[in-house]
Amino acid sequence: MARDRNSDEVYVRPIRRLLVGVLVLFMLAVFLIWRIDSPRVERFRAAVIDRVVPSFDWAMAPVNGVAHLISDFQSYQRLAEQNQELRRELQDMKAWREAAIQLEEENAKLRDLNNVRLDPQLTAVTGVVLVDSGSPFRQSVLLNVGARDGIVDGWATMDGIGLVGRISGVGNTTSRVILLTDTSSRIPVIIQPSGQRAVLVGDNTITPPIEFLEDPDQVRPGDRVVSSGDGGVFPADILVGQVALGSDRRLRVRLSADYERLEFLRVLRNHPRESISDPGGLLAPVTPPPLPLAEGATEAEATDG
């Protein structure tokens, strides 16, 4: 067996060297042909390209596929970046849209009443969210404004778009905000344009349900939900969100506030209005009509009788 292997190597080595030499000469000839500047050689090169290149489409298919894949990936990456930018612009447009709707409604009221007097005390204090203490049992955040800034327990808070919650606990320099998603949150709302009154009940989800609705048949997904101002806890006409139909077939509210990025909150100063404790005093007392005088009786006798 050793002799057979030696004999094979005797024949294989020269053939291998010959093939390598031929390959080197062929590559050298191709190099020289492609480097020579001559019209005749140029025609020869063109003829070779016309004859050989079309038959190598199958070999170029993987290369073209990889090139197309890279191009598609780059286009998908650009589309993803454009999608993120459009989402940010859409969020800004929602804020401007809600501001425009509120201004339009306010303008309509002013044109209708003409002599309406706006509440000058409804101002706001802006605070920074320090800590988000959200948990499965409590949904709240901590602000860096407190009693020294005039914050009062129960005031409403909102971000740049919609209502977020109410102040529940005030310290000297900080205050706690109970979010609308907390299970202890109950706020009266109005659903527009039907004008249906309901109560938004927190259930520790981002889409709290609507309860105590007067007529559910008049409410449609997409209707605007604003605060009603009933009870004097929240100011009226503050945007809360839009009606949505949940997976459990219950009417819920898709909150307009961006709960994933609560960085700054505005605390609305809502001073209590003057209450009328004696409504009867507003009306003048009614004087009973005098009794008719009997025949032969004087006015003093009729009074005494």
User: What oligomeric state best describes the polypeptide chains here?
Assistant: single chain
What radius of gyration results from the CA coordinates?
42 Å
Strand content: 15-25%
What name is given to the CATH topology of the domain at 124-271? Answer: Thrombin, subunit H
Elements, N to C (H/E): HHHEEEEEEEEEEEEH
Structural class of the helices, strands and pairings? alpha+beta
Shape: elongated
Helical content, roughly?
Answer: 25-40%
Report the total helices: 4
Tell me the name of the CATH homologous superfamily of the domain at 124-271: Rod shape-determining protein MreC, domain 1
Mean pLDDT figure: 76
Task: List its salient traits.
305 residues; alpha+beta; Thrombin, subunit H; 4 helices; 12 strands; elongated
Describe the structure in your own words.
- 36% of the residues lie in helices and 21% in strands.
- With 305 residues, it is α+β, with helices and mostly antiparallel strands.
- It has a domain at 124-271: Rod shape-determining protein MreC, domain 1 (Thrombin, subunit H).
- The longest helix has 57 residues, at 57-113.
- It is elongated, with a radius of gyration of 42 Å.
- The model has no long low-confidence stretch (mean pLDDT 76).
